Amino acid sequence: MWKSIRKHFKPNNTNQRFRVLVLGPANAGKTTLLERLTDSPAGAAIVSRNGKRVITTDIRTRGIQNIDDEITYVSSPDFVFHDSGGFEAGGVKEVEAAWQFIRKRSLASPSQQLQAIWCVHLCRFTCHHTLTHQLLQALHSNR
């Protein structure tokens, strides 16, 4: 699927990039997924906040993610990822932050809008499933 997206996505201008929000519990493999999809080694992410590069040792460090940060990879410059930061057990705060982010991006200029939302979840985290499911239901009902 990723190769198909990369093959068919052709930006109209230099400001247009395919923007993806990645949702899921902490330690579900969101960062690993992005590294594999972009053929990038661990720690190769470029993290930017408000247009400025953020100095970070590794985006895998728990608790440092900011959903507004733009995560890019040299191997896939036309794609921007946003990490939900991981939904903790009972973490309504993280789900609310994701919901606010999605609403904000839906009202943004086309170059800042999300093109996709990917959910990564693990079967053993039933609480996370419930929170993610509630978020997705809310998104569906507010289309």
Automatic annotation (TrEMBL):
Superkingdom of this entry's organism? Eukaryota
Query: Which positions, given as ranges, span the membrane?
Result: none
G domain residues = 19-99
Q: Molecular function terms in GO for this entry?
A: GTP binding
SUPFAM superfamilies, sorted: P-loop containing nucleoside triphosphate hydrolases
Q: What is this protein called?
A: G domain-containing protein
Q: Which organism is it from?
A: Hydnum rufescens UP504
